[in-house]
Amino acid sequence: MTRETWATRTGFILAAAGSAVGLGNIWRFPWMTAQNGGSAFLAVYLLVVFGVGVPGLLGEFVIGRRARRNPMGALRDLSGSRRWAAVGAVSAVTGVALLSFYSVVGGWILRYLLVSMTGPLTGGAAYLSTPGAYFETISFGFEAAAFHLLFLAITGGIVLGGVRRGIELGTKVMVPAVLVLLVGMAAWVVTQPGAGAGYQFFLGFDLTTLRENFFSILGPAAGQALFTLSVGAGTMVTYASYLGEDRSLPFDGSVIALLNTGVGVLAGLVVFPLLFSQGVDPGTGGPGALFVGIAGAFAALPGGGLLAIVFFGVVTLAALSSSISMLEIPVAVLVDEGGWSRRAAVGVLLALVAVTGTVTALRPALFDFVAGTLVDLLLTGGLLAFLLFAGWVLGRDAVAEYVSGAGPVARQLATPWLFAVGIVIPVFLVFTLLTTAGIDARVGFWPTVGVAVAAVAVVLVGLRRQATV
């Protein structure tokens, strides 16, 4: 079976950026920013994106392009070990877990888009007049499950089209559309009275807040960075495996990170000024904050119904650009490793996620666990495994893949990059997990750093011993 490849470099960049440019930026980013200090969170988030996320992204690219396989096949073929194959297989589980909650949120967005367009005809006028009560009614239950299935069906239809005719074609339309519409909305929001308070909250750098709350912000910022860049799930390993020629991975990774970060910042420049202009507290509402706050703001604005259609249309496109990447991970595993046809793989996985997502839509406590704790653990653990593999199993081969097709500046950064992905970033990831669990509050900062260093050292010793067997 001939393996598919991207038709163009632009298609690859937009597909990878589309995986990152999703609900993480438009739904989760403003919510997390509001709950973690506004501009202080933004500062830490940007540090993590470019200090951890971009090197991690390149680590996954290196593995995928060198093996030209899905995460499971890539780790097995490059290491010759079934143990590493099992580690790679976890990526398929992660993709299913992500889609099991993500499609529920995607269903919420489709519901809001529908009622924005039809209004009273579907009984949806309440989403503007009483947004909090409306979201409470539709967020979980059988109607939420039905819209989850609709969103999942659209996602499956795109992935069924394959790499070129489905994913690449879809993201070539969706990603530019998201950027154009967000820029337009950001320009319009500037004209709203009271918007300045939103800009101050989002962009007004507060050194005191940053210094006093840095470590409490670090965990959420790291989780947000991994989620929005789609690292740790094997998405970027899978997408890089479809590269048909040598390209500059550092350049492509930087462009993808800039596009992703740009959309997140644009979303903040739309959401926060709009909420502050209407006197809405952005820190309230939890996962429904975007829907409740934005719908309430649209209700108070002339032409709010039309603006709602545009806004939720943007969010729908962004959601789909990410959900197709989540489904593609397990699809690639079944196609590459099991010899399945793409049609059969998509069909079976849609049936599986239809069940898991429906259960999630019916149980709010399960949704919170999957969308929070489970996903954070899977993404952090997955990225940790990929980086240790790139740094210590591939080693100099990883550097050779990194510099292939790269320019002179990127070549000079290859060895520092290998050191970062092999030692520095793994220690950071373990430290972040420990601080998220509150270990630093109980034992202190430096003992927590020591535990993180020791844990990574033990793993590295094990990897060296395995390499000599």
Question: What descriptive keywords fit this protein?
Answer:
83% helix; SNS_sf; 0% strand; Na/ntran_symport; mainly alpha; 469 residues
Description:
With 469 residues, the protein is an all-alpha fold. It has a single domain, classed as Hydantoin permease. 83% of the residues lie in helices and 0% in strands. It has 22 helices and no strands. It has helices at 9-20, 23-35, 39-67, 71-79, 82-118, 126-129, 131-138, 142-160, 162-189, 195-203, 207-229, 235-240, 249-277, 289-299, 304-338, 342-362, 364-394, 396-403, 408-412, 414-436, 439-443, 445-468. Helix 3 crosses helix 17 (364-394), helix 7 packs antiparallel against helix 14 and helix 16 (342-362) crosses helix 17. It starts with 8 loop residues before the first helix and ends with a helix. The mean pLDDT is 82.
CATH architecture: Orthogonal Bundle
CATH class descriptor: Mainly Alpha
Give me the count of strands: 0
Low-confidence stretches: none
Tally the structural domains. Answer: 1
Which descriptor suits the 3D outline? globular
Describe the main β-sheet briefly: none
Radius of gyration: 22 Å
Indicate the mean pLDDT.
82
Helix content: over 70%
The succession of helices and strands, N to C, reads HHHHHHHHHHHHHHHHHHHHHH
Could you tell me how far the N terminus lies from the C terminus, measured between alpha carbons in angstroms?
34 Å
Question: What count of helical segments does DSSP give?
Answer: 22
